[in-house]
Amino acid sequence: MKKQVVASNQGDLSKSLKTLFSSVVIPLALTAAVCIFIFILGNGSNFQGGNHANQPLPGNFLGTVYKGGFIVPILMALLIIVLTYSIERFFTITKAKGKGSVTTFIKKIKHLIEYNTVGEAIVECDKQRGSVANVVKSTLNRYTALEGDQGMTKDQKLLSIQKEIEEATSLELPALEQNLVVLATISSVATLLGLLGTVLGMIRAFAALAQAGAPDSVALSTGISEALINTAFGIGTAALAIVFYNVFTTQIDKLTHSIDEAGFSIVQTYAEKH
After folding, report:
1. Exposed end of the chain (fewer CB within 10 Å): N or C?
2. Number of folded domains in the chain?
3. In this predicted model, what pLDDT tens digit does every residue of 9-19 receive, in sequence order?
4. Domain of residue 147, residue span
5. Is residue 33 a contact partner of residue 71, using CB atoms and an 8 Å limit?
């Protein structure tokens, strides 16, 4: 009983830390992006005459990026968020897989259940750990409890096992899918912000061309830089978000499939042996 209480408290603490992490990432990323934009990209050493109002020094990349305008720090913040959440999801999903190969674990569990060695299967779950092992262990514990229950029919017991699988899965999956919606949103928002920056830059460039007499070459080049920098940042950030989102959802789908496979095997074995 004490172990269950401790495990429950640890689970609540872990959820609280994850919620806190998710809530502070976005404001911290925006603050970091603004600081980088002002103090690093906008540093006077990157520009002619030591003033960020002038043109960047020839070949100076930081100064060129600074000329992308106020959309740049927003896109930089989105990029930082994508990288941060991707790293966090990588470790979370890796932990959810457990210590060994999930495929090998499922095969071992199916083999042990077929030979009615449920106790050994539970021990394997303790060794494997991770989300798949947690669901399988919870189901096997229910499996063991039902074997000594004489007050339920076989069909009721099978429904009880299936319900246990569904409930255990519903507790594990939200933790795996957390923050993925942010990556999915950024994949669209980054592209739109990049396009917005492009439009603003082209407006500035055409305004420079529209002046009477010789066009303002500084304003023209600044407008073109703003357009191109924002396009590159927006597309690059969106591309990363899409790639990471697809990678993580594919891994989660594989874990879900493993859970379904193990659950089906447990139900079928119970139906055959009882």
Report:
1. N
2. 1
3. 445 555 566 66
4. 80-273
5. no
